[in-house]
Amino acid sequence: MTRPSARALFRPIYIAALAGCLALVVVVSGLYLSPRPAFAQGAAATNAPSGLPLPRYVSLRAGEVNMRSGPGVQYPVDWVYRRRHLPIEVIAEFQTWRKVRDHQGTQGWVHQTMLDSERTAIILGRTRTLRADPDANSRAIARLEPDVIVRIAACPQEGGWCRVRAAGFEGWIRRVEIWGLRKDEVLD
């Protein structure tokens, strides 16, 4: 009977140790590598974790909301919104985080609990006239300054007008004068 070499004796131990180290590297790298969020393309994509279409419009639930550079609290805060009900467009989702874009094009990540399904819009450009009926010759009810947030009551398919509420007034404003809904979106 021949005696096995030291190399042959330690080979199973070496292989087991190497496999253990490799498994440890895989586990540790999984902890430190940030997951890549899935981005949906198109106006009616529903492969988001919430099952809701992307993109879509929502509003800010709180008077102070942090926008982060990535989907998690470990990412730095890039921006702090201090306007409750500000309209925001959700453009992607990752677990409980939503990638959003505001009316100025700023993008970042917000936790889903900071968003509300209430539909609002913001007045664009210059002072706009709120009218009694969806007609440019209709009686003026109020003048709305730029960046005023309005609540959307309805946006019918025809006519290019939306019924909104702001500061105790309710009336009609042209779609092109507000930001917070898709071009052909109908709201009842």
List keywords for this structure.
SH3 type barrels, 5-stranded antiparallel beta sheet, 1 helix, 188 residues, elongated, alpha+beta
In short, what is this structure?
With 188 residues, the chain is an alpha+beta fold.
Please estimate the helix content. Answer: 10-25%
In the CATH hierarchy, the third-tier topology of one domain is known as SH3 type barrels
Provide the CATH superfamily of one domain.
SH3 Domains
Largest sheet: 5 strands, antiparallel
By oligomeric state, this entry counts as single chain
Question: Quick one: overall form?
Answer: elongated
The CATH C-level name of one domain is Mainly Beta
CATH architectural category of one domain: Roll
SSE pattern, N- to C-terminal: HEEEEEEEEEEEEEE
Q: Tell me the distance between the termini.
A: 91 Å
**Strands in their spatial order, largest beta sheet:** 6-5-4-1-7
Helix-strand category: alpha+beta
Radius of gyration: 27 Å
Number of helices: 1
Mean of residue pLDDT values: 83
DSSP strand content: 35-45%
Number of strands: 14
Uncertain regions: pLDDT < 50 for 5+ in a row?
Answer: 21-43
Could you explain how this protein is built, in words?
This protein is α+β, with helices and mostly antiparallel strands and 188 residues long. Among the domains are: 63 residues, SH3 Domains (SH3 type barrels, Roll), CATH 2.30.30.40; 59 residues, SH3 Domains (SH3 type barrels, Roll). Strand 12 and strand 13 form a beta hairpin. About 12% of the residues have low confidence.
